[in-house]
phosphoglucomutase (alpha-D-glucose-1,6-bisphosphate-dependent)
Amino acid sequence: MLEVTTTPTVAFSDQKPGTSGLRKKVKVFQQPNYTENFVQSIFQAVEDGFRSGTIVVGGDGRYLGPEVTQTIVQLAAANKVKKLIVAQNGIMSTPAVSHVIRKYSADGGIVLTASHNPGGPDNDFGIKYNIANGGPAPASVTDKIYEISKSLSSYEICKTLHVDIGVIGVYEFHVRGSLFTVQVIDSVADYVTYMEEIFDFAAINAYIKESQLQLLITALNGVMGPYVKAVMCDKLGLPDSSALACTPLPDFGGLHPDPNLTYAASLVTAMQDGTYDFGAAFDGDGDRNMILGKSAFFVCPSDSLAVLANHLECIPYFRKNGVNGFARSMPTAAAVDLVAKEKKLPMYEVPTGWKFFGNLMDAGQLSLCGEESFGTGSDHIREKDGMWTVLAWLSVLAHTKKSVEQLLTDHWKQYGRNFFTRYDYEACETEQAEAMMAHLTALVENGSLVNQSITSATGKMYTVQKMDNFKYVDPIDKTVTSKQGIRVILSDGSRIVFRLSGTGSSGSTIRLYVDSYEEKFENTQLSAQDMLAALLDIAFQISKLKEFTGRDAPTVIT
Ligand code: G16
């Protein structure tokens, strides 16, 4: 019988989960009792589910992950969890954790990831709780975790319990008169089997061979390395030379594992000479993706979602289950809305955060969704899914026999183009960022800009039609989520959106999103930055972003 100790602790006041879990610097999690407190708060918040049941633990392989996995095992045993399903070495992609929760009918899961944020002793770590549907916990649960964390005075731990999480197997212990089981499972096997059920691998394989399609995929030294090897190399026959940065490293080899044009520049550069026809990058935990065509032709995530929505019949999963509806986050450009209209399918607009798609999927109203932040996925799980997106794109290529660029051009010909750009101002002074948001909130409240015309530095004039702070009423459980981003809607339908990121770990990150619709095909060929220059200038005039933050240029442009 293993001994349980009740350890006194002092509560922390900063354990409020953000857009997707608690993300902080590693050094914050290394403070005595910091990690134990947060995990204990999770256990207390969802006590009933766990006491009788099973939870899954996995992470993106970043620094601190193995130690925290052991701590979770010790806390779970002492908190009367019946069974833990742990990924081998604690490493499992976020989409794979979502799948495993659903496949084994677990009561929830703990994902150790700071997603696309850099890793290593001086960088970021994160802990996220997922519910029984496999998706990120909604605010009702994370608020409860936070409330408990603010007054926690002790945690229960079984300090002498150690499991070798490097070895697959079932380990049993007697704790507090009950049996506690830890099952260490293969990190990729279940996920790969599921992908084979969803997609027609033989058709993709045949197309790659007959068209001699050249692919280049980078895992940016994140969790996706073993999945890329298993799916792309072993199943689809890609040579090892097509799989870049595929060894998960605790610090991602110094890379910032965020699949965008700035942080995945190595992929962009490698594709520029036209040797490769299709490229993809994943983030640290494997839920985000970036898709590139020949010569590094960039597929904007809003367009990626729309093109997939337009071709779902290529994928066996949708032929079998049908398509119930589409959704996107509010800042995502509305390209997919036009496809929904054409196909007469329901379309939903939710706040930023994958957790908002879960209810719609559980209610059978949503099949495909995506976000401008490089996330796409379907109701096969309850997280966005990078590898799923790559396989979906390859299915479309195999079915249509078109190139990536041709698919986009044809899409714009049929639907027009929703030009989109996002400017990120990372690590701004929090006070300055909040002052800018307060200025914008005041403009919403006093309505002084409505019906006003503003002329950009380029000479183009826009009239403000409406300004609001996005509010969402969940169509299923009627939960109201307010203040999800300041929107400026202009009279030609163009939009400017401002919000503060909920995933950063230092200072505040301002996100400025701009989009505009263009129907004339000849104009769809122009560059997004040229098309949106005037709107960006209007955005700076309205927000006084440069004056508030002192920033002349963004850190990242999408
Ligand atoms: C998370 C959420 C996404 C969200 C993204 C960015 O992704 O799951 O829904 O779009 O953060 O959020 P923010 O703009 O607040 O930084 P991930 O990949 O970081 O887990």
